[in-house]
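Tutorial handout. Part one gives the primary structure; part two gives the three-dimensional structure as tokens.
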Amino acid sequence: MGVMRPPTPCLAPGCPTYAAERGYCSKHYKARNRTPAQDQQRRLYASSWWRAKRARIPKRDPFCRDPSGCTAASTQVDHITRRSAGGTDDDDNLQGLCRRHHSAKTMREVQRRGAQ
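Part two.
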């Protein structure tokens, strides 16, 4: 049996929690590589304002709005024009999609951005 090391504090400034992974507590380990834009996005999607909007769009669009004519229930709220490309959070830029078509659309956008 190996020697147990004493616990070490998290490397994040001011964090009183002991390190769990590579010098950071679990909270700061996950956050260490996020950009300010990603933090802003996380705050937006956790807000009560977004949660209310998130509940409203599937009621307006109960079925997937993918152009293929999919009839699956819409379970994801999608920005028609992504926010990073100038799209807004207005209802007219949001649509309900099923998980499959939302994932496929997101993948196409990621691949397109990578090719630019």
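Part three, for discussion. Residues 3 and 112 are 50 Å apart (CA to CA). The chain has a mean pLDDT of 86.
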